[in-house]
Write a structure and sequence with these properties.
The chain is of the alpha+beta class. A 7-stranded antiparallel sheet has the order 1-2-3-4-7-6-5. A hairpin with a 2-residue loop joins strand 6 and strand 7.
Length: about 250
Amino acid sequence: MACELWSGKLDAYFDGELPADEARACAEHLRQCPICSAEGLDQLQLKRAIRIAGHRFTADPEFRARIEKRVAGRESLAWPSRWLPALMAVTAMLLVGALILARYRPNPEAQMLSELADQHVATLASANPVDVVSTDRHTVKPWFEGKIPFTFNLPESQDSPFELVGGKVSYLNQSPGAELIFRVRKHQISVFIFQEQALGKAPLNEITTNALSFTVRGWSRNGLRYFVIGDASPQDLDKLSDLLKAAS
């Protein structure tokens, strides 16, 4: 019965359209149900493929030059007067289309956070969420040596409510980074670390926002970019962020 309830709401959950209490309940169900988590992962992969495909088209330069030449009147093209209303209508449609495309052009930061949220959900849905399983930072940190092109420090979490679960290599803009998993009570938090240069033109401001119903914290330190994302309370994410900042 629970699967029937949440299966129909997965799309709204991944689009961040569920109320906060329903989003938390859906996330909890995904953690416990392999069937729904697998279905959710399929939906995420489809959404990502559609999003990527939607930005692949670029106008052919030769075609663009030809259109500009015609608009400038450099070709002797005589338009019958009866075609002018149709031409004006087409021109208006093109202008409206251009305005719509400009308005809905994806924000680099929003697109980046959406991709990280997808990766976090994929980790939640995975039967093997980490490649190195350990609560010891002295075991997890050395595991990344040779797998990513940078090093980082991990905080001592023994006197905090956070438990290190482990980590794995993650990718953003085709560049490798670290994804560390922390647990606080029943919530799982992903900490992503990448080199700033891997983020391209995405803004590098301090981030305090939400993505796909998850709370996100982000900052830069010593050439690295940190993201903390999860469905725990904003206060928990702030505390974990403070621990990571102090260690770095």
